[in-house]
Amino acid sequence: MKVLFLGSSKFSKIVLNRMLDNKINVVAVITQPDKPSGRGHKLQPTEIKKFALEKNINVFTFDKVKNHIDEIKKIDYDVAIVASFGQILPQAFLDIKLTLNVHPSLLPLYRGATPIQSAILNGDKLTGVTIMKVAKDVDSGDIIVQKKFPINNEYYHELEEKLADFGGNMISEVLKDFEKGIIKFFPQDHKKATYVSKFSKDDGKLDFNLSKDQILNKIRAFSEEIGCYILIDGILLKIGRACDVSKDFYTNTIEPGTVLNYKKAFIIICKDGAIEILKCQTPSGKMISGRDFLNGHNEVLGVNILQC
Q1: Spelled out in words, what is the top-level CATH class assigned to the domain 202-307?
Q2: Could you give the dihedral angle defined by the CA atoms of residues 80, 84, 90 and 92, in that order, rounded to the nearest 10 degrees?
Q3: Domain ranges of the chain
Q4: Mean pLDDT by 10-residue block, N- to C-terminus, for the chain (308 residues)?
Q5: Cα torsion at 32, 12, 87, 194 (round to 10°)?
Q6: Which of 29, 129, 138, 273 has the lowest tally of Cβ within 10 angstroms?
Q7: Looking at the domain 3-196, which fold is it?
């Protein structure tokens, strides 16, 4: 059985790697075109393009799949697998061969571009991976298999890697069943569908009027990609890591947003608790510990962020 793989992200790379480990015959990869990156804005290939070339797999970079249908029809494959590709696939492509998707949520929950970040942001304790048939509407196709996966306070990248590895094993088993002709499809309950879209940098701003769990969830979901930040004493401070220290530091007599006058740790009061900033970064600096930041910025002690 010959597999055509479509993907562009780190999630895609891990899924593909697991498929190769499971002896799936991937004959070609379609990914997004090279994009400018870094200070020099040099064109850089997607992670999966670099990985596929290292594995001697043929790679096609298509800006829009709909413009390359004739080329795709010339590829000798039996089934297409999609994992975090980043393009809506046209019906003309879906009509060529069966196309399956590796989606990191328990569909119909979290259809769309950011299922992992959304699950973390919403404080979910359970997520999963769904293997489904690709349909015209986003993430609406019939399900083949769905498995649950626990969330244990992971940050986005860690959970992404775990789900990609999990999904890579799942799709490998589905492909083996497909080769035997024993897969079955089950329709989604479209009435229960929820949708998530891409987040922006503005979504990363931290509001200490919120609960400690809401703030920590946002940091776990966003700090590694779009970034989380606060404005404190004129400094736009990026927040990389934080933890709950309510048991030792919270008091409802101190206003939310206040930086405690405590030099040993960077503690900020929120609506129902206190969090410690473990890692942070100024615009011109590197990521450092919260305590090291305080050593160079004692002026922020006692400041209320909400009044800055």
Answers
A1: alpha beta
A2: -10
A3: 3-196, 202-307
A4: 96 97 98 78 86 96 94 97 94 97 98 97 98 94 98 97 98 97 96 95 96 98 96 94 96 95 96 97 95 94 89
A5: -160
A6: 138
A7: Rossmann fold (3.40.50)
